Amino acid sequence: xxxxxxxxSVRYDLVPQRGLNEVNKVLTxxxxxxxxxxxxxxxxxxxxxxxxxxxxxxxxxxxxxxPEGNLSIAEVAANALILAEYFYINPAGDxxxxxxxxxxxxxxxxxxxxxxxxGAYENKTGKKLNNYWNGSYDIREKLxxxxxxxEFWTNLPTKHLPSFEPDLYxxxxxxxxxxxxxxxxxxxxxxxxxxxxxxxxSKIDLLKEHNVxxxxxxxxxxxKDAIDAGIFCYLMDAPHNKYYNVGHxxxxxxxxxxx
Length: 259
What we know:
Elements lengths: L16 H14 L5 H7 L2 H16 L11 H18 L16 E3 L8 H9 L13 H8 L3 H4 L14 E5 L4 H10 L7 E4 L6 H6 L4 E4 L2 H9 L3 E5 L13 E2 L8
Parallel strand pairs: 1-2, 1-4, 2-3, 4-5, 5-6
Helix pairs in contact: 1-4, 3-4
């Protein structure tokens, strides 16, 4: 049950009585094949699942009754009830085959993916950027001035908190890494390693060095470089990239299911 879901009042008058009677016939007949302790505690889940599938297939093919005279669909229901009971009394018997979990290595850009750089920059400089990556002729000069402003870089507000733990951050910043770490930790972000490249330089070498399989970035050039290098990339929606059509790879927050 979802822990946030309000529990329902259980009703006990909803079970079809004739159907239940047929299930009880099946359960009684099972005692002729299995010791009660083995049946209740010792069977592997896949053995029960196999029986359920066998009788469901027979029912779908029009075989209403088993050779023992039980309803095929009642056999299905009995096996389903046994599996429901096993969740509580026989968890060690769960031998279902689970797919291997191949967790991707995820890298996040920081500015305008995690933190609101544009808003903070405009408030600090009093100059509004236009809706392109190179949004001002003097942005390099302004960034050079800001490169010594620890207060600015350690107080950028959160833009998107991730619903997962990234493996690393890769950002285009020419400032001490400690300032970035301080800002991320203060804002409640996962404390993953932080790597920096100079403004407008490629991140590909770092992505390859750390075997990154998914990048999330707001800069079109970084998106294109990653795709060209065979690295899956999401483009975080921002005013300076809206004119690029990337289909389902455009995202609007970090509430992603990255398995």
